Amino acid sequence: MVTLAYNKSGGVFSKQQCRIGDDCSSCAIAQEGDKCTEETTSESLYCDPKTNKADVHENAFLVCNLLKNKIERKLCASGQFFIDGKCRSGHVRYKRQGIAGSGRVGDFCSFNTDCLTGMFCSTGSCTCLSNFVAIQGYCYLKKNPGESGCQYAEQCSAVWPESRCEKSRCECPEDVNGIPYVQAKTRDGVICILHSGEDGDPVPKCPLPEYDDDLLTMPVSQLRNPAMTDPDDSDVELGEHVNPLQFCSSSSTDYTNFVANGGGACVYSQDPQNGDGVYIADIYDCVTSVASMANVKTAMEGVYDISPAADGICCPNR
């Protein structure tokens, strides 16, 4: 749940922020003029005196003016509504509580037009589209790691488990046992990987469900590199030092030719020599992380001859 720091009667405190439909006495509703310390953009809520529930002004939003450290209320242009962090043209997303057939998630419908934005009518009830997530009876657009415009953490965690909405931007989970997650780019989008392993292991870890919380073992589905050499260009036998995951070059688009020492794309091979490999680009991505790979190259200097072109590791794709 998001918290919002603001000022009431001269005192600064933090309280749980209201969502649409929440009981007004159980949460705080941000108001214009409240103190703020972080760059945020959010819905403009109010307390409906008839229901004592938090409701929303469809065409208004709140922003934090960091120069004044105060919340300001803005209005969308005529005919626009504040949807998914922006003023947009289209149908009203919200309708007041207690109105039959309001078009919220699960409400009865006969046509798609009976439902609100981000929904369709499925077997007689309003259902979120596949790229939206249901939150408090409404559908919000799912957001990828690093993408801006989120209002709730669920928009982020629906794409990447345990990711968070910070300053209207989806961020990776914080860490596992003190090992931080970092954003990494792939051809299929941004993902979250672990910056390194434990106990001095510098190699970043793919985000796989086989990992336990201790990060003690590398899952069997991790792609191994059959062709690593030391600085003298001598083969490093598998199991000697470590059995390294496969490094790769994100700039390579040759998905059938295996290149040793991480100089090419993610290609499967059991032959340690450069040459024909097995196409696996449909299930593996070259995941890039500049800072993490710089640490790897520094730590493995004198042990492995990692290609200068290597800028990522091969991870199962999304």
Number of helices: 2
Structural class: mainly beta
**Total of domains:** 3
Share of helical residues: under 10%
Q: Note the gap between the termini.
A: 27 Å
Number of strands: 23
Largest sheet: 3 strands, antiparallel
Which descriptor suits the 3D outline? elongated
Low-confidence stretches: 1-13, 93-101, 214-222, 238-243
The overall pLDDT, averaged over residues, is 77
Q: What are the secondary-structure elements, in order, as H or E?
A: EEEEEEEEEEEHEEEEEEEEEEEHE
Radius of gyration: 25 Å
**Neighbour order of strands in the largest sheet:** 3-4-5
Beta-strand content estimate: 25-35%
Protein name: EB module
Domain EB: 128-175
InterPro entries: Cuticle_assoc_divergent, EB_dom
Organism: Ancylostoma caninum
Polypeptide structure, described:
A 3-stranded antiparallel sheet has the order 3-4-5, with no helix packed on it. A hairpin with a 2-residue loop joins strand 12 and strand 13 (169-171). It has 3 domains: 1-91, no CATH class; 100-171, no CATH class; 175-318, no CATH class. The radius of gyration is 25 Å and the shape is elongated. With 318 residues, it is mainly beta. The chain has 2 helices and 23 strands.
